[in-house]
């Protein structure tokens, strides 16, 4: 049986859930049935990991996150030429820019099956109305070019339905997966973990894992930390990640007088142990697809508090396995965190709820298996259509 040729396309290989899941999928698709390649823009922090993955990687020089009509037109042509040359059976796109340009290029190149995964939407509440409307219009158009649309959260699927995305494509919820067996982490040396954060051995800390970008809203994490510190001065706060808002977050911490209470250790490879040694997990994102870090925190059994945006509502049940407050309600977020730190009975209840959360659908192996089944379903459907047409 001839292998199905699959091209995964993503804008740039930065640290993040979409990028990590895409690399995992490329490395784990059944090699007996699928011939996989990766297409991306250059200059990502995970480029070397991709190149060591054992599959072809094609860098598209003009594919970048920033909107630039000239570069975007060049990237569209480069993608079209790549697809025409290699003739993939399936093009599976990820992220907003690659999703729009990649699907248009695949359609122009005559690719049989085009799939897009929404790891969250490119249009956001923070955008100006004209820009948001333009992104929505582009996504609605590209939904008509898609054989299937994958959503990582039911909230995103419901929003797509409301906005009128094409239902000619198959719609699926396939979760952004993690390796569930890594959580909770075992045999972590808490003293060593805290020493690496420049914390005392008996220190308590609240953690967030995410990039320093507007979506993740790190400034509200700092504001939450200041409010909690007024009631619980012995607690520290750790935000792991990097991004353009880090200098501003550091300045805010300085101006609020809590710089000594905050730790910004950058990206870490020991996230399971960082979570296992923490007191609570906090997420102040203003919009999300499906926050993998929140899944990891629940898998660890950490009590969580988060803004109730998008995929967060797929995971947290307020007052049962965590706390959910309205996006932007810093005082409400701080109040929930303070309660978790001060009230032992409440903390025990939320921890029990977190540990009881059924995370089976978030297993990363299941994520790959679900994608494989979808690929085969779509290819079989296309073959049947060709046979019926006498082609």
Structure description:
With 391 residues, this protein is α/β, with parallel strands linked by helices. The chain folds into two domains: 4-177 and 363-388, 3-Layer(aba) Sandwich (Rossmann fold), CATH 3.40.50.2000; 180-359, Rossmann fold. It is built from 15 helices and 13 strands. The protein has helices at 17-28, 47-51, 69-86, 96-108, 129-143, 154-163, 190-196, 218-231, 246-255, 271-276, 292-300, 312-315, 330-342, 344-356, 364-388, and strands at residues 4-12, 34-41, 57-59, 90-94, 113-118, 148-151, 170-173, 204-209, 235-240, 262-263, 280-283, 304-307, 323-325. A seven-stranded parallel sheet has the order 3-2-1-4-5-6-7, sandwiched between helices. Strands 10-9-8-11-12-13 form a six-stranded parallel sheet, with helices on both faces. Strand 12, helix 12 (312-315) and strand 13 (323-325) form a beta-alpha-beta unit. Helix 8 (218-231) packs parallel to helix 9 (246-255), helix 8 crosses helix 13 (330-342) and helix 13 (330-342) crosses helix 14 (344-356). The two termini are 19 Å apart. The model has no long low-confidence stretch (mean pLDDT 94).
Biggest sheet overview: 7 strands, parallel
Can you tell me the number of structural domains? 2
How many distinct helices?
A: 15
- Taken as a percent bin, the fraction of beta residues is 15-25%
Going by CATH, the architecture of the largest domain would be: 3-Layer(aba) Sandwich
Helix-strand string: EHEHEHEHEHEHEHEHEHEHEHEHEHHH
Give unreliable regions as ranges.
none
Q: Based on CA inertia axes, which overall geometry fits?
A: globular
